[in-house]
Amino acid sequence: MNFNNMANDWQEALIDKPDFLKLAIQKLVQKGIEEEFRKFIGADEHQRTEERIGYRNGSYPRQLKTRVGTLELQVCRDRDGEFRTELFERYQRSEKALVLGVIEMYLWGVSTRNVEAIMEPLCGFSISKSQVSELAGKLDTDLNIWRTRPLTDEYMYLVFDARYEKIRENGRVISKGFVVAVGITAGGVREIIGTWMINSESFEAWDNCLDELKKRGLRGVEYVVSDDNAGLRGAIAKHFQGVMWQRCQVHFMRNFLGKLSQSEKGEGVRLLKDVFAANTKEEAKNRLLKMEEFLKKRKKEHVWNWLEESIDETLTVLDLPIEHRKKMKSTNMLERFNQELKRRSRVIRIFPNEQSCLRLLTALCQETSENWGARNYLKGMK
Questions:
Q1: 350-351 and 155-169: which strand pairing?
Q2: Which of 103, 141, 165, 117 is nearest to 338 (CA)?
Q3: Could you tell me which of 70, 96, 157, 374 has the fewest CB atoms within 10 Å of its CB?
Q4: How many CA atoms lie within 13 A of 101 on its CB side?
Q5: Would you say 210 and 236 are in contact if contact means Cβ atoms under 8 Å apart?
Q6: pLDDT category, 364, cuts 50, 70, 90?
Q7: Average pLDDT over residues 211-233
């Protein structure tokens, strides 16, 4: 095995031209530290404000090791020595998870000496097996605390989605699902409230996920959005009796298009979008008449029967306040986030074990949820 070539391949995958990116990222991170410090003391440099709670007192050097090398940074200092930047820990959490995933992949049957030779060009520093175990243990502990934290808010809306990753297990490569649950509070704030690895989207797997959420304090659920998964629907019916369930319109559209020929798809999409654009369920049903005519004219009675039986599941969103409908008609919120998960997980390609996958994707979920902060995702909530 040519480890030099392997390192070169991964260097390109983990972002090529590291010198250029290193300087760009270094400037970006430095600006982030300075902005965090400005907010901490409540004033810009040499600015006098009533909100000011401290004064600058120079800075001290700090290194941050990343995929593109070691960043040389200056951390601002206040006179009382109270400022502590959160940027390092929050930035490095996903970096650590990503690097650990790459390392573990090589450790799976690769000697420590070769791992060290690979890590130097990849990350700008070498690392041993014992260091990997220590880093993984600490990171897993921190992430598990976040994953199992008590849910103290009421979450009126829930969004579920799952994506599949390749994982080595017992000498073979299998696909396992990574589940993300997003909750939206009564105040309109969204938050990632759950992440799990599941072997399949069976009722038992989803039942365990929802049961865990309830044990952590999940309450106030009125509306759930997901793909049409029988296991999840069964679990929802068990744990959240009487809640409204919305079948994701985007997934439904894909299923619908899969039943049409290429020449029929253009008109089919237009007609279904017209149904989804209705303001009331009655209006949507009236617009379906054109779809019925279109499908029966093309001898697609079986498609019409399927559509007629399942379309109501996609129109539950019309029972929500009009200002919520655009964002709550599908799982698109998570679809876009899944692209970011994919961008990072494809670096690993095949995870060495389930825990490595859970670590990396959960770290990204935690950072994303923190970045969402307390900003209102939906307005006009209770």
A1: parallel
A2: 165
A3: 374
A4: 30
A5: yes
A6: confident
A7: 95
According to DSSP, residue 248 is labeled -
Residue with tokens 């296991």: 231
Position 106 scores a pLDDT of 40
Give the pair of three-digit tokens for residue 179.
Answer: 């589940």
Domain residue ranges in the chain: 3-147, 155-337
User: What is the pLDDT averaged over residues 245-266?
Assistant: 95
**Given CA atoms 204, 142, 367, 8 in this order, what sign does their dihedral have?**
negative
Predicted local confidence at residue 50, as pLDDT: 57
Q: In whole angstroms, what is the distance from residue 195 CA to residue 237 CA?
A: 20
Beta bridge partners of 181: 160, 194
Contacts for 35 with CB less than 8 Å, ≥ 6 apart: none
Burial category of 99 from C-beta neighbours within 10 Å (exposed 0-12, middle 13-18, buried 19 and up): buried
Whole-number Cα distances in Å, 12 to 7, 120, 132, 293: 9, 14, 23, 53
Task: For CA atoms 105, 108, 112, 117, give the dihedral sign.
Answer: negative
DSSP states along 293-339 = HHHHHTT-HHHHHHHHHHGGGG-GGGGS-HHHHHHHSSSHHHHHHHH
Highest-confidence segment of 28-37, 49-58, 86-95, 373-382 = 373-382
